[in-house]
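Example 3.2
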Amino acid sequence: MVGRPDEPGRRLPWWRRLPGLGERRVPWAGERPRLRRGLGRIWTWVVGAVVLALVVTAALNVGTAVQAVRDHFTKRAPIAANSYKASHSWPGHGPALAFDKINNTWWGSGKNQSGAGEWVEADFDQPTHLLDIVFTSGESAQPMDLSKSALPQRIEAVVTTADGKKQSRFVTLDGASGGQARAFRVQDVTSVRFILRSAFGATADKQVAIAEIEFFGPSSSGSS
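Structure, written as tokens:
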């Protein structure tokens, strides 16, 4: 009888000496090899679970994806808030002046340096769908006025929605004149509080000034 290829004293081929391979039992001629069903079954379940999770995730996010595409292409229209307030203001430069659609009036934090932690807020009587915001930093939209005040650099926008939940979004601005548009897509908004976090040109004799904050949402005329 011919000896088995893995019997003692016989040198195995190099590929049989690799870790995990040398100890495998080699079947005799005519002997049916044992099926390794355990590991295969486990991998089948793992792959199936992953595929199912991906399908469920995709199904749950279809609505979000559709809304994102619709928001991207829809025509914009300006939206006015109904009331305004601030943590502190420079005399004669209250919060309403940051939302009056005039870019040569301004809200002043009334605090020197960056005014970190001071805020200005816009409130809406009805839940509102927002798409974009436009900031005009400083005391006006004119480049010659930029150096008159500190300019907001990083702002935390705390959004309150109709269900009472709050979420924070951070807006980073440039130290430049004129309007700076930023995407701001959120639905059912009842208020937005803009909290100063850092500023350009912050010194002991300057305060942060914001000439205008403008909101834009979907136009009633539909897509452009």
